[in-house]
Amino acid sequence: EVESVPVVPCSEPHDSELFHSFVIPGDEFPGDEAVREITATTCVAEFESFIGIPYEDSVWDVTGIFPTEATWNQLDDREVLCGVFPISDEDTVGSARGIAE
To answer: Would you say the pTM of this structure is higher than 0.85?
Structure first.
């Protein structure tokens, strides 16, 4: 369960950048596997418009922060946050928006 995400300005070194958020619709928790699939599919689909090239051609990878069954039921948590980070796992400075690499 993630209660908060540390936020730093893009001008400071950071290991990832959040680039998209969305809400999973519905009243019933769709299951862990379905939530992971929805997260992966949506985050990869939004990747190219943020980075500037297709996911498969990039040196960036995608991650997601998503609700669990507990947060869904106890906190009415439906939000997914999509992030990007360099495959090299090095910290970056500045935004990855439109970096096209």
So the answer is: yes
